[in-house]
C-alpha cells in the first residue's frame, strides 16, 4: 500500500514497478487464502480505482474551512496536500505534479487532481466539493 501511495504521489516509475511486482506476488497468495491477505487486497483496490488528491495552494497555512471539513469527513483513501511558500520546493520534490501549481497572491485556491492531473483551480472548498467527493 505504501508503494502504491508513493507511486500515486510521485509518479516515479521505480515505485510503480516495485508496487506491481509486490501486487503480482500477493495476487497468487491471496487466491489461496483471501482472509489472510486483507491489507494486500486494500492495496489492490487502490490500484484499481482512480486516485484523487486535493491540493490547496495557499499563502496563509491550512485554511480553517479545510480543517473543519477534514475533521468531519476524513479523507480515507485520498491524499490532501497543502502547498505554501514555506514547503513549495520540498513538495515539488516529493509530488512533482505540484511544481507547476502556482501559489495565489492571497488566500487559497483548491485543485482536485486525479492520477497527477489537476482540474481547473477553484476559489472555495465548496466549489471543489461540487466537482466530486474528496
Q: Overall mean pLDDT score?
A: 86
Characterize the overall form: elongated
How do the strands of the widest beta sheet line up side by side?
2-1-3-4
Count of individual beta strands: 4
Query: Which class best fits the helix and strand makeup?
Result: alpha+beta
| Biggest β-sheet description | 4 strands, mixed
What is the first-to-last residue Cα distance? 19 Å
Give the amount of beta strand, in percent: 15-25%
Oligomeric assembly: single chain
Q: pLDDT below 50 for ≥5 consecutive residues: which ranges?
A: none
Compressed to H and E, one letter per element, the order equals HHHEHEHEEH
Helix share bin:
40-55%
Radius of gyration: 17 Å
Helix count, DSSP H or I runs of 4 or more residues: 6
Keywords for this structure?
alpha+beta; 4-stranded mixed β-sheet; 16% strand
Description:
The protein has helices at residues 2-10, 13-32, 38-48, 64-72, 88-94, 125-131; strands at residues 52-58, 79-83, 108-114, 117-118. With 134 residues, the chain is an alpha+beta fold. A four-stranded mixed sheet has the order 2-1-3-4, covered by helices on one side. Strand 3 (108-114) and strand 4 form a beta hairpin. The longest helix has 20 residues, at 13-32. The protein is elongated.
Amino acid at each position: 500500500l505504501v508503494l502504491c501511495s508513493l507511486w500515486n504521489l510521485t509518479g516515479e516509475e521505480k515505485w510503480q514497478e516495485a508496487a506491481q511486482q509486490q501486487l503480482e506476488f500477493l495476487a497468487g497468495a491471496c487466491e489461496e487464502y483471501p482472509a489472510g491477505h486483507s491489507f494486500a487486497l486494500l492495496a489492490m483496490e487502490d490500484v484499481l480505482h482512480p486516485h484523487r488528491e486535493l491540493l490547496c495552494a495557499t499563502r496563509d497555512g491550512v485554511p480553517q474551512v479545510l480543517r473543519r471539513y477534514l475533521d468531519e469527513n476524513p479523507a480515507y483513501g485520498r491524499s490532501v496536500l497543502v502547498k505554501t511558500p514555506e514547503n513549495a520546493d520540498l513538495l515539488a520534490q516529493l509530488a512533482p505534479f505540484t511544481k507547476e501549481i502556482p501559489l495565489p497572491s492571497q488566500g487559497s485556491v483548491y485543485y482536485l487532481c486525479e492520477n497527477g492531473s489537476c482540474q481547473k483551480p477553484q476559489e472555495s472548498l465548496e466549489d471543489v466539493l461540487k466537482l466530486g467527493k474528496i
